[in-house]
Amino acid sequence: MSTTANQVRTIIPTVDLRAQYDAIREEIQAALREVFDSQQFILGPQVQALEEELARYCGAKFAVGAASGTDALILALRAAGISPGDEVLVPSFTYIATAESVSLLGARPVFVDIQPDTFTLDPAKLESKITSRTRAIVPVHLYGQPADLDPILQIAGKHELKVIEDNAQAIGATYKGKRTGSLGDLGCLSFYPTKNLGAYGDGGMVLTDSEELSKRLRSLRSHGESRKYFSEEQGWNSRLDEMQAAILRVKLRHLDAWNAARRANAARYDVLLASVPGVATPRVAPGADHVFHQYTIRVPRRDSVQKALAGQGIATTVYYPTPVHLQPIYSSLGYHEGDLPASERACREVLSLPMYAELSRAQIERVAAAIKCALQ
Ligand SMILES: *Cc1c(COP(=O)(O)O)cnc(C)c1O
Prior knowledge:
Layout: H1 3-9, H2 17-38, H3 45-58, E1 62-66, H4 69-79, E2 87-91, H5 96-104, E3 108-112, E4 134-137, H6 149-159, E5 162-166, E6 174-175, E7 178-179, E8 186-190, E9 204-208, H7 211-220, E10 225-227, E11 230-231, H8 242-273, E12 288-289, E13 295-298, H9 302-311, H10 341-349, E14 350-353, H11 361-374
Parallel strand pairs: 2-3, 2-4, 4-5, 5-8
Antiparallel strand pairs: 1-9, 6-7, 6-12, 8-9, 10-11, 13-14
Helix pairs in contact: 2-8, 3-8, 4-5, 4-7, 8-11, 9-11
């Protein structure tokens, strides 16, 4: 009996897509059979049905499928009129795609610090960054927690800025009773496989209440065509395919149950970690319904805690080790260490623990015990 074999059997991954697939295998295979039998693969009935179902689910009038969450952001920014020379306010503590979609269009991402307790954009830090070139704000609902949208929308209204929600991590979350992604001018979803609603490949979607914007999005995602083979502006190919849409329609039926299970798992972690000195568990802001895409704690000596957990067969991830304003791609923007202290500190302290709907009580207990042990 080798201990290595024993440890391999009991590894706790950060996310377990296999466990989810095991529960929905028959439904997925039936949905895929339907697509194969139809032999329609691009922008067909599955994509149209998913667009309608997700618009309804998120409380938006229109939804437009795209090839990825990154493309959804680029499409939304383009539809909002963002062009070279414009400035767009974005948090620095996020995935690179939030800022990259801005700079890809030749616009300048202007980085804003976060609230340390919620990890989301700090509305109090916004107004000092607004100039005559500012056109939009992109709040990120990081880890599944809604950013504080009311003051953000109020500032945007006052300065006539567009609000584009990066809702890649928070599908199903609500802010004061309303689903995220439907509160700004445009909202973006990612269906990257490990997201709360994940495809079996890449995919994304843009939500909006504006018919005009939805038409522009449909045109942009398909070569700027206002009708077939008639291009009015520069677009590109960013389409969601029928297989991904069919899979996502199956999974959408389970999303609320999975998000509820994530919340229950988070509540278990909260109880078990409450008494561990040094550990800060996630704070859920009043009015926010968090869907725990990640369960992210702050810990002292984070890297050594992570290493100790790995030694116990417990996988964890650091989202994100480097703030976006200090990434090499943005060195020409002139930011320095110390410019956004809350974001920089978060990068040093955060650790995301295993989190998925199928995580068992015993697994959560093992993770919590290992953290306690690592900090002793
Ligand atoms: C995943 C993610 C994206 C990008 O989505 P892709 O589908 O991977 O292109 C954008 N923003 C955030 C915050 C994300 O987590």
